[in-house]
Amino acid sequence: MRLDLFVHCSNHAPQSPAGQIWLRVSKPEQTLNDPTAWPNDGLPIFLACPVCNQVSKHFSGVQAFPPEELHNSLQSGKVWLRVSYLCGMEDCEAPVEFHVLMDAPKGQKTRDGISDEVLRTSVLLSLQRNRWTGYRPCGHDLRAVPDRFYRFRWMEKLQGYDELDPRWDEMRSIK
Ligand SMILES: [Zn+2]
Ligand SMILES: [Zn+2]
User: Fold this and answer.
1) Which of 73, 107, 114, 156 has the smallest C-beta neighbourhood within 10 Å, fewest atoms?
2) Could you read off the pLDDT of 90-129 as tens digits, one per residue?
3) What is the mean pLDDT of residues 56-66?
């Protein structure tokens, strides 16, 4: 087993293993030294806890070897899906993004968007039903927006939340 990183979901007792959100970085040695990968990019990251679905904000992770009982599930090909949109509440234009852990889709050809229609529908349904809870970076409640506002990206390498990223301007211009 290789070194990985975890952050702690605030919804669980501080030392509880259930609260450990393992990042499952695909190439740990590379990621831990890559200046453009989180947490080296110096940005906060928003991650949904796979256990309780609460989205929390993190600035750093703990390097450790994952516990034995997680080895199988860690190796079963999970991928972080980044969900992005613009807030839109009370004229707020703040960029919103968080990551949810998904089973790696078969035949995923593009990293932007979800090419599998069944999977895409199920992710949108989860969003409509407010499966993931918490707060947006601007402080507004994390609740569903119309389907057409969502952008998805499969993240081989996790990156922090950058509100100055040019992709937000692109999203504002097509809104
Ligand atoms: Zn949790
Ligand atoms: Zn907002």
Assistant:
1) 107
2) 999 999 999 999 987 776 666 788 988 999 999 999 999 9
3) 91
Task: Give the ligand whose atoms come closest to the C-alpha of residue 85.
Answer: 2
Which ligand has the minimum distance to the alpha carbon of residue 88?
2
What's the pLDDT tens digit per position in 5-41?
Answer: 999 999 999 888 889 999 877 666 666 778 899 999 9
CB 173 within 8 A of CB 166: no
Cα 124 to averaged position of ligand 2 atoms, centre (Å): 20
Residue 13 CA, ligand 1 centroid: distance in Å: 10
Strands 20-22 and 4-8: antiparallel
Tell me if residue 95 falls in helix, strand or coil: strand
Task: Please state the pTM of the whole predicted model.
Answer: 0.92
88: tokens are 């839109």
Compute, in angstroms, the gap from residue 79 CA to the centroid of ligand 2.
27
Determine the Cα–Cα distance for residues 154 and 151; give it in Å rounded to an integer.
Answer: 11
Q: Is the dihedral of CA 1, 76, 48, 133 positive or negative?
A: negative
The ligand with the least distance to the CA atom of 20 is 1
41 Cα: distance to centroid of ligand 1 (angstroms): 24
Looking at the DSSP bridge assignments, the partners of residue 95 are: 86
Q: In angstroms, rounded to a whole number, what is the distance separating the alpha carbons of residues 99 and 114? A: 14
